[in-house]
Design goal:
The complex is a heterodimer of chains A (about 270) and B (about 250). With about 270 residues, chain A is an all-alpha fold. Chain A has one domain. In chain A, about 75% of the residues lie in helices and about 0% in strands. Chain A is built from eleven helices and no strands. In chain A, helix 1 crosses helix 5 and helix 6 packs parallel to helix 11. Chain A starts with a helix and ends in a 12-residue tail after the last helix. The longest helix of chain B has 17 residues. In chain B, a hairpin with a 2-residue loop joins strand 4 and strand 5. In chain B, helix 9 packs across helix 10. Chain B is built from ten helices and ten strands. Classes of the chains: A mainly alpha (about 270), B alpha/beta (about 250). Chains A and B meet through helix 1, helix 4 and helix 11 of A and helix 1, helix 2, strand 6 and helix 3 of B.
Chain lengths: ~270, ~250
């Protein structure tokens, strides 16, 4: 892997973001609005329960962690969409860059952009609504790791979907997190779901994060194995997403899709 | 003459439609080869296969002796291209685009190389201008600067002067000629401007319906086929390829 190629892909995103308010604002505004909205909802809920229970670490923490996953996924897909919107695929794929280097560059761009969102969410949740991350202890690290890895996996999957189906397929990509959220048990315990949905939830890594988060808030232990299982699943999904992207790329090279991408001839 | 590009029995078919039909040719070191033919002849398909953005149905392509099918990255490190249908991203400046692509081609001493190319293609005024607001001629020059970033052994130019005024087109032709003679770069050039082809190309290949019908010196080829000019020969290739195919077969 040639580092300059990976950095080049990420640098392009930096060039695009630094001079564009329309790209800077979405990095943090929507997640900030989510935190504010859910922050007040949790305060309202707390007013009913008094000292008996605190919804902030459970609900606001879940909103923050889910927002992080969405930002990671969108960071990857947005970097890809920029190449789609500027019809840059021919220039890009005619360079010596490998698919691994390109995808790694997209991930690097996503790390940088999602960190902005994460920082703003942290700052708001802690300073305005009194969310304390000490409540989660060191488990916050594997929580974030699982969500980061799974965000990357669905981001790469989304990019492959757009490469296969053409630019308009971005409308399939944006709702992916919303589609997964009922199964990921962001706001309710796994046991709330019907049995068939629980089977699906077991296959979704964030489920283990949110189950773990609720266990900590309830003062119960989190089994090490569950989070390791979540990490393992997320890594597996990254590998599957990379395999899918490579397959789609090979199909695009075989059919000439890259050279006439905007024609959406595959759809 | 040893070749920087060797295309052997190259074929591309989409189900029953054959876009490129078993063509073979080469481009030598320092040679400028014109790839000519009417729209739909298979020129762009051929260029896309050389650039590895389209895989051939059969046949082989080697760049500088490196097979593109088995060593894509190494082959493309020695190649670059400029095409009217592949402009640089319009939302980045000329300098940003050159840096971005320079990093993808892993160009050494990139800042210096960018300065040289910006001066060479008269882009100093536009260094910090977004490519999307440049005139088509300026965009073409920016694309050509990108194409020279890695000092390619093989340069593919698809109608590089199509949107340039005669003066700028002349300058570009001189630069490209210099590249071929001084840097020993092999160039595959497509154009519909027969005057330009005659003045720039050492050799031309006429394509029609996916096949190479004629090959030769652009200054003597028309007379060999009883035509006055290269343009007249082009029109015959476009309208009556069969008559030439019969002559070619004899």
């Amino acid at each position: 892997m040639v580092v300059s190629r990976v950095l080049g892909v990420a640098l392009r995103q930096y060039y695009l973001i630094r001079g564009s308010l329309t790209r800077i604002i979405p990095l943090f505004v929507w997640v900030a609005i989510d935190i504010v909205l859910w922050g007040f909802i949790t305060q309202y809920l707390n007013s009913f329960t008094g000292q008996r229970s605190n919804f902030v670490p459970m609900i606001l923490g879940a909103v923050l962690l889910w927002g992080f996953l969405v930002r990671v996924m969108q960071g990857t897909t947005m970097a890809f969409m920029e190449d789609s919107w500027s019809r840059n695929f021919l220039n890009l794929f005619a360079t010596p860059m490998t698919i691994t280097e390109y995808v790694t560059g997209l991930v690097l761009a996503s790390i940088a952009s999602s960190m902005v969102g994460l920082f703003v969410m942290f700052a708001l949740a802690v300073t305005v609504f009194g969310l304390s991350f000490f409540a989660y202890g060191m488990l916050i690290i594997p929580f974030l790791l699982v969500l980061f890895l799974f965000g990357i996996a669905i981001g790469i999957f989304g990019c492959a979907l757009m490469l296969r189906l053409g630019p308009s397929a971005e409308w399939f990509v944006w709702p992916i997190p919303a589609l997964l959220s009922p199964f990921a048990c962001v706001f309710y315990p796994l046991s709330t779901l019907p049995v068939w949905m629980q089977y699906v939830s077991f296959l979704i890594p964030p489920t283990y994060v949110f189950e773990g988060l609720r266990a900590i808030v309830a003062g119960q232990p989190v089994a090490d194995g569950t989070l390791l299982w979540g990490i393992g699943l997320a890594v597996l999904y990254i590998l599957l997403a990379c395999w899918f992207f490579t397959r789609v790329y090979r199909h695009a090279v075989r059919t000439g899709l890259i050279a006439r991408y905007s024609a959406e001839s595959a759809s | 003459m040893s070749s920087v590009l060797s295309v052997s029995d190259l074929r591309k078919a989409y189900r029953s439609t054959v876009a490129v039909d078993g063509i073979s040719f080469s481009v030598g070191i320092g040679e400028i080869v014109g790839l000519l033919g009417p729209n739909g002849a298979g020129k762009t398909t051929t260029i896309n296969m050389i650039l590895s953005v389209l895989s051939p149905t059969s046949g082989a392509i080697t760049i500088d002796g490196i097979n593109t099918a088995t060593h894509r990255t190494r082959a493309l490190e020695r190649t670059n291209f400029s095409a009217v249908y592949a402009p640089l991203p319009g939302n980045m400046t000329v300098a940003e685009n050159l840096r971005f692509f320079g990093m993808l081609y892993a160009v050494k001493d990139l800042s210096k190389r960018i300065d040289v190319l910006i001066a060479q293609f008269d882009l100093e005024r536009f260094r910090n201008t977004k490519c999307g607001v440049l005139s088509s001629g300026e965009q073409t020059r920016a694309c050509l600067a990108k194409a020279m970033l890695n000092q390619p052994t093989l340069l593919l130019l698809d109608e590089p002067t199509a949107s340039l005024d005669p003066s700028k087109a002349q300058e570009i032709r001189e630069i490209v000629r210099k590249l071929a003679t001084q840097h020993r770069c092999g160039i595959l050039w497509t154009s519909h401007n027969m005057y330009e082809v005659e003045s720039v190309c050492d050799r031309v290949l006429f394509m029609s319906k996916g096949k190479i019908l004629l090959e030769g010196n652009p200054r003597t080829l028309p007379q060999e086929y009883g035509k006055e000019t290269l343009e007249e020969l082009f029109i015959t290739v476009a309208r009556e390829p069969l008559t030439l195919e019969e002559n070619h077969g004899r």
